[in-house]
């Protein structure tokens, strides 16, 4: 995630402290993964308790992803410059404080602001995970470490929706939805105290300058694109919204021009533009962005369909999603360990088509069974979708990075994670068009299920179209990632090349 040059590993050997450090940073990564999804099932409860508008709901979900995505590269650079342990501890402290502010929010506006702050603090915390692993573990142990991280990703995918549903349903101490945020407090405090004791400090041997102008341009451009999408439907699509979205393209153009200037001036741009000359990386950026869009659309619409359209409880909806999460975890492990080494890019393309097939089955079932559909009937399309998603998410980063020059692998990983988050935020913004744009929320209560079912089916057709686009974009990926051709080697395989550099281009980005 972070564009860090190889750094000198801190004390390794048989020191057990590094395993405590690993547990701490993995717990922080788990908190971030859970917080991305835990809010979805609590949305109806937040609407009832706080009187939140749909615009508020979009910002509660999209605001976190936007702040996280906009700050990932910057967070990684700050760790390189000022120390990974220091920035990690700052991030986890801020994340814990922001979680408390979310839990004790007195109105929807405060909740939105606290969620944006929470995402910004996660952007400081999360990028340090990979850097700390690099600095703490010798090369031959990193395979085991990233295997553990894969388990954390799978557990986070299962735990987020279900934990959110349980905490909302239990209504602990009469707090309704608030415990979904307050649960971070004891975990964050423990992570802070233990992190100070067990995590060793490390920095990049040659610190890069922070590109503040680039940070501002990325953030402003993203907000100019997302804000009109978020508020457009509510404000009857004003002209200024279209002007702002067009202006975002101008800002991104200015960003590209400035990054070229920054590269020539001091060689420390926020975004390494030379990466886009690599065909697999450029195509992979497109895949990662568009895939994020599809997920942003599906998960929010799916939640509203089950809880508002079908009238299911948060727990009912959360339990319904468990087969999906289990299928993702199972397919991800199978994909990385057995399928991709043999079949390469075809596995990812099969994943896109499989996921599209699951969505088509869901459309058929939603239309056939209507408001009487049961959880067990949703299991088939959800399992098929989960298997498809699992075939994509695990090997995608390796496939994209396989042709990236070794010295830019860290920067490329940060950019990939950023565009994924931005794609997700953009997808959440599009929900107002593809879902709420086709339903009438003012109908009588007896007509609500039909309206939401119609909107759900309409949105899923958009998801199918996006998945077909992803399938085609994957043609730009290498047929077989280099690490599967050459074989993974965890030691320097060039004369005089340190092990840290040798494995840099082969390690996956920490992509939730």
Largest sheet: none
The low-confidence parts are 1-14, 484-512
Please work out how many helical segments DSSP would assign. 20
Structural class: mainly alpha
**Count the strands?**
0
Q: Helix proportion of residues, in percent? A: over 70%
Strand content: under 5%
Mean pLDDT: 79
In one word, what is the shape?
globular
Task: Summarize it.
The chain has 512 residues and is an all-alpha fold. It has 20 helices and no strands. 74% of the residues lie in helices and 0% in strands.
Features:
mainly alpha; 20 helices; 0% strand; globular; disordered N terminus; disordered C terminus
Description:
Helices cover 74% and strands 0% of the residues. The chain contains 20 helices and no strands. By secondary structure, it is an all-alpha fold. It has helices spanning 17-37, 43-50, 54-82, 84-103, 108-125, 127-136, 142-170, 179-182, 184-198, 212-231, 239-266, 279-309, 314-320, 322-343, 345-369, 375-401, 409-434, 448-473, 482-486, 499-504.
Topology of this structure?
Layout: H1 17-37, H2 43-50, H3 54-82, H4 84-103, H5 108-125, H6 127-136, H7 142-170, H8 179-182, H9 184-198, H10 212-231, H11 239-266, H12 279-309, H13 314-320, H14 322-343, H15 345-369, H16 375-401, H17 409-434, H18 448-473, H19 482-486, H20 499-504
Helix pairs in contact: 1-6, 1-7, 1-9, 3-4, 3-5, 3-10, 3-17, 4-5, 4-6, 4-9, 7-13, 7-14, 10-11, 10-17, 12-16, 12-17, 12-18, 14-15, 14-16, 15-16, 15-18
């Amino acid at each position: 995630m972070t564009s860090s040059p190889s750094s000198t590993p801190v004390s390794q050997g048989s020191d057990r402290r590094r395993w405590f450090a690993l547990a701490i940073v993995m717990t922080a990564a788990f908190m971030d993964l859970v917080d991305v999804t835990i809010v979805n099932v609590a949305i109806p409860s937040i609407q009832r308790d706080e009187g939140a508008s749909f615009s508020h709901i979009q910002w509660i979900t999209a605001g976190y992803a936007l702040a996280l995505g906009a700050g990932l590269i910057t967070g990684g650079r700050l760790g390189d410059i000022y120390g990974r342990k220091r920035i990690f501890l700052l991030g986890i402290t801020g994340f814990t404080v922001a979680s408390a502010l979310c839990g004790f929010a007195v109105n929807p506006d405060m909740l939105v602001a606290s969620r944006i702050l929470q995402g910004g603090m996660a952007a400081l915390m999360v990028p340090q995970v990979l850097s700390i692993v690099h600095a703490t573990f010798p090369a031959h142990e990193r395979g085991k470490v990233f295997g553990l991280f894969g388990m954390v990703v799978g557990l986070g995918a299962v735990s987020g929706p279900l934990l959110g549903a349980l905490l909302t349903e239990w209504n602990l101490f009469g707090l309704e939805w608030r415990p979904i945020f307050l649960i971070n407090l004891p975990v964050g405090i423990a992570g802070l105290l233990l992190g100070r004791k067990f995590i060793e400090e490390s920095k990049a041997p040659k610190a890069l300058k922070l590109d503040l102008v680039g940070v501002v341009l990325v953030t402003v451009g993203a907000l100019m694109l997302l804000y009109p999408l978020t508020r457009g439907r509510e404000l009857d699509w004003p002209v200024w919204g279209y002007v702002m979205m067009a202006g975002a393209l101008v800002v991104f153009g200015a960003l590209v021009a400035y990054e070229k200037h920054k590269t020539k001036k001091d060689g420390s741009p926020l975004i390494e533009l030379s990466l886009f000359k690599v065909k697999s990386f450029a195509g992979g950026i497109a895949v990662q962005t568009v895939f994020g869009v599809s997920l942003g659309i599906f998960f929010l619409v799916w939640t509203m369909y089950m809880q508002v359209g079908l009238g299911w409880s948060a727990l009912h909806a959360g339990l319904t999603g468990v087969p999906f999460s289990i299928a993702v975890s199972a397919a991800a492990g199978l994909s990385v360990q057995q399928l991709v080494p043999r079949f390469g890019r075809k596995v990812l393309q099969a994943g896109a088509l499989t996921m599209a097939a699951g969505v088509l089955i869901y459309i058929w079932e939603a239309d056939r069974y209507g408001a009487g559909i049961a959880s067990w009937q949703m299991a088939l399309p959800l399992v098929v979708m989960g298997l498809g998603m699992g075939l994509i998410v695990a090997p995608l980063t390796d496939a994209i990075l396989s042709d990236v020059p070794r010295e830019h692998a860290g920067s490329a990983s940060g950019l990939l994670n950023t565009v994924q988050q931005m794609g997700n935020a953009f997808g959440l913004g599009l929900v107002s068009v593809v879902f709420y744009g086709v339903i009438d929320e003012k109908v009588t209560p007896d007509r609500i299920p039909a309206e939401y079912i119609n909107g759900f089916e309409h949105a899923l057709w958009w998801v199918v179209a996006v998945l077909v686009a992803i399938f085609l974009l994957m043609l730009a990926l290498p047929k077989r990632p280099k690490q599967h051709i050459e074989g993974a080697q965890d030691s320097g395989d060039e004369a005089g090349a340190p092990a840290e550099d040798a494995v840099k281009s082969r390690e996956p980005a920490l992509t939730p």
